[in-house]
Amino acid sequence: MSETKKFKTETKRLLNLMINSIYTNREIFLRELIANASDAIDKYHYLSLTNDKLEKRNDYKIELAFDKDKRTITISDNGIGMTKDEIINNLGTIAKSGSKEFMEKMESENLKEEDAREIIGQFGVGFYSSYLVADKVEVNTKSPFDSSSYRFTSDGIEDYSIEEIDKDSIGTSITLYLRKNDEDNNYDEYLDQYMLQSLVKKYSDFIRYPIQMTVEIEKPVFDKDGKETDKFEKTTEVRTLNSMIPVWKKPKAEVTDEEFNEFYKNKFYDYQDPLDTYEYNVEGNVTYTALLYIPKKAPYDLYTEKYEKGLQLYTKGVFIMDKCKELLPDYLRFVKGIVDSSDLSLNISREMLQHDHQLTKIAANLEKKYVKHLSEMQNDSPDKYREFFEAFGINLKFGVYNNYGEKKDLLQDLLMYKTIKNDQLISLKEYTLNMKEDQKYIYYVSAKNKEAVLSMPQMDALKAKDYDVLILNDDVDEFVMQILNKYDEKEFKSINQGDLDLLDKNEKKAIDQIAKDKKDLLTKIKDSLNGKVKDVVISTRLTSSPVCLVSGDGISFEMEKVMNNLPNGADIKAERILEINPNHDIFKVLEKISDDDNKLAEYSDVLFNQALVLEGFPVENPNEFITKMCNIMIEASKINEE
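User: That's the sequence. What structure does it adopt?
Assistant: Structure tokens below.
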């Protein structure tokens, strides 16, 4: 009995989007379906290692067939198959729970087609590429964990049906009923033996299970004396279309960049070539082969709880685990690839892996080698490294910050920042090499861009000295500076925290004298602000701006913002210190009105709120602030009239 179910709304919309807008390279349907078949066999094999109920087999294969008269292509495997629930979850709902989030992201961010193509590739919707060439798809499947077999049928538009069938063997068979040719597309070309063979060779040659097809061949006819005649007879033979040698098993010199890229796109559901490919073999105390990739762009869910890091794990070429998280530290979570080691047991389980000493050694060696590779990329291919850092640099920053800076010495040279003098990313080493001869510190500031930095009053003295300043624009950056503390014996110093140590002895002596002479005025200003600031001081950093707000030792303003924006964040507040420029006209005004407590309080409050705005904080009482500003403007107007 057949049961019909409707596709969910978001699934229908995503299907329509994918078929009509996103996938423009239609021939990849075969790659996607063969990859799914290979994954199904991998899963069966892995489960059979620990499940006595599953038959131990060595006859794994993927079969490809076509029928010109019926206009069908069929891809079959003897992998794990699907239960009824798995059919509904895997075929009836795109990307399981992910499709709804995808559609919401599409709508909320108004994504362009290129962005949509990037994200959809990460959902692993390979089965649905069938509808690029087919207007009907039929899936026959049997799972060892279900007493019944099932057929899924759908045109990929509104609904799908599921019915019980008789299927003797475990596995899945997918039959595509090809669309009719139209003005723009020739679907008949996929009903050609040589076309299918070439597509397998192009996209799936590395699949380690035989991809077999019964092909039609012509053999010469021999006479009774055994001599070849000019006649031929048609017959068939089963051919294996792929080499079955994984790319990491081939000699590196024999693998083209295109083959490496196709392996990546096929195995890790990306439509773009990777940004970087790194393959190496290690022999000695630990023995393994690694083939690692950096995606062109960060996966849409890289920084969510749903994202699973990890590399595919093989032992002696046999698939063991899809995402072995023990192989990568968190700060390399973006890396995709495989590790194949002969040092691990074929029967190793997830629980055993957590305590396996060989795996621990492999992971430590892998981390060390990959960090070295990133360093070599930084030195040998700086433009490529900058592109990498723009996409994934924040992960390295978290690596520096995590575990109280345990990895800071390993990673600090890989960090890169823009500065007020460099619009492209530079390393800390480059910054220190270009420091002025008299410069003691590595100066930094948190800001969106260079323009925002240059407009800050705290930059007055630094501009005069022509010192460069690092621009931090990730939430974690200031925490990184605190953890690093110094680089190449040069301390890091925030431009809006503490003394910048920019004055010579005479300048400092002059400022100290002004502070001493104006102590009473500064105290009155502080008192008038009623505890809003820890102190009011004469500034050593302002030359043209009237006032600025700086933080005391410890928590910076940026840390305050970040920590208070965290879920369940505590009400943390950095110390506020109001600095006043003694050479600015506003200071002369404050001196004149110092005997009028009310007026001084009003002026002081306006200056404090101006300083708050410059630091990106909200005005404490907007209505009151506007009223005071108006009063001051009216008073200034009256004075001018007089």
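The longest strand covers residues 228-240.
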